[in-house]
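Reminder to self: tokens first, then the designed residues, so the page reads top to bottom the way the pipeline ran.
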């Protein structure tokens, strides 16, 4: 039996914190589908969902079929069920993440009790990394090297330059 997990998020863009969680998930699951959430009506993202998916695929090219990336809209639990996934993976950093995650997990369980949510704790060296902060620092000219996959860093810096007034 193939154990498949869905790792959902905005991934705007993928960071080394996400990479760490995906690598940990591969120790527990046979396949991880990295699912980029997009909402066509409410989007303030720096990258389109296609660009976000592409950056994830580039980052995990070496893992072959074990890691795939895809964009989804609509309910996460429906997407997970349609993909045959038995679990949703979420990463935890600080205690601050907990309340939001607890609420989402409980709602998802209410909607579809068959899909379990599993939490992975990020490596301590990644506790402070988030896509939001990385974008903020990059847009203010700060150094974000080492916080993102090598393939993603130049794309983020170019986008930060394009967005400067
Ligand atoms: O990385 P993020 O932005 O914290 O991820 C949030 C995400 C994508 C996991 C969440 O917004 C989500 O599941 N969206 C899909 C819509 C849905 O199923 N909403 C109900 C969840 S309780």
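Designed residues (165 positions):
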């Amino acid at each position: 039996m193939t154990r498949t997990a869905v790792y959902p998020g905005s991934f705007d863009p993928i960071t080394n914190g996400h990479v760490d969680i995906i690598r940990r998930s591969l120790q527990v699951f046979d396949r991880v589908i990295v699912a980029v959430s997009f909402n066509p009506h409410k989007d303030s993202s720096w990258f389109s969902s296609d660009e976000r998916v592409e950056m994830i695929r580039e980052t995990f090219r070496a893992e072959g079929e074990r890691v795939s990336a895809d964009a989804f809209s609509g309910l996460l639990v429906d997407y997970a069920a349609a993909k045959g996934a038995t679990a949703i993976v979420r990463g935890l950093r600080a205690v601050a993440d907990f309340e939001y995650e607890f609420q989402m997990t409980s709602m998802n369980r209410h909607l579809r009790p068959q899909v379990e949510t599993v939490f992975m704790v990020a490596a301590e060296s990644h506790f402070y990394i988030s896509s939001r902060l990385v974008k903020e620092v990059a847009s203010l000219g700060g150094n974000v090297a080492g916080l993102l996959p090598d393939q993603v860093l130049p794309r983020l810096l170019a986008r930060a330059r394009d967005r400067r007034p």
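The radius of gyration is 16 Å.
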